Amino acid sequence: ISGSQTNDTKRQFLLERLLDAVKQCQIRFGGRKEIASDSDSRVTCLCAQFEAVFQHGLRRSRGLALTAAAIKQAAGFSSKTETEPVFWYYVKEVLNRHELQRFYSLKAITTDIGRGRAWLRCALNEHSLERYVHMLLADKNRLSVFYEDWSFMMDEERSSMIPTMAAGLNSILFAINIDNKDLNGQSKCTPTVSDLLKESTQNVTSLLKESTQGVSSLLREITASSAVSILIKPDQDSDPLPVLSRNVNA
């Protein structure tokens, strides 16, 4: 199987999974007054499928932030996952200042993975996902900067179905928790070079501090154990002082 066939199969798989997730939510919640929250597995699954579609084929070599993250990783300051691109990088391109501010000011959300996930859940809650997806797909040149040619988003036929699916969810009353620390994921993706550098410096400082503390506490331990050994009365055999015999004492 060639690479293009494999990618096509993957895109088809993603499409079918997303269609199924949308359908399950429509069957369960569509047109009802019942709230669809993230405590329901169908809602969780729906979010995960949308994330998989937005995440598919994101370019890794985009911008200085990723390069800096890679340098940081090589220096041992971050985990491998930190250099992974996330769909928030692209989503934030279509958001206005107030919308960006909204997601950067969430108390529990501290990563770009989390911001992307919060945006998705917010769009579902507010029935604005269809509008956003149209915006995301509108500029093909910008899309190609962020996504590989084989990505789902660059697949014109399949990606054009996302707004339709999003519109199909408008009859559902979503109430998904947005400011939720669980959305942060395992990795911390730092958005800017300055943040990365600042963090690296902090890490170096804390490492130095830790090693200094380590040395001083080790010295304290050595000193303490030396003091103890001095206090312990040594055995007679090893006592350098002459031992007087009982006869002399008598």
From TrEMBL:
SUPFAM superfamilies: RUN domain-like (SSF140741). It comes from the Eukaryota. InterPro entries: Run_dom (IPR004012), Run_dom_sf (IPR037213), RUN_SNX29 (IPR047329). PROSITE patterns: RUN. Residues 37-181 form the RUN domain. PANTHER family: SORTING NEXIN-29, SORTING NEXIN-29-RELATED. This is SNX29 protein. The gene is Snx29.
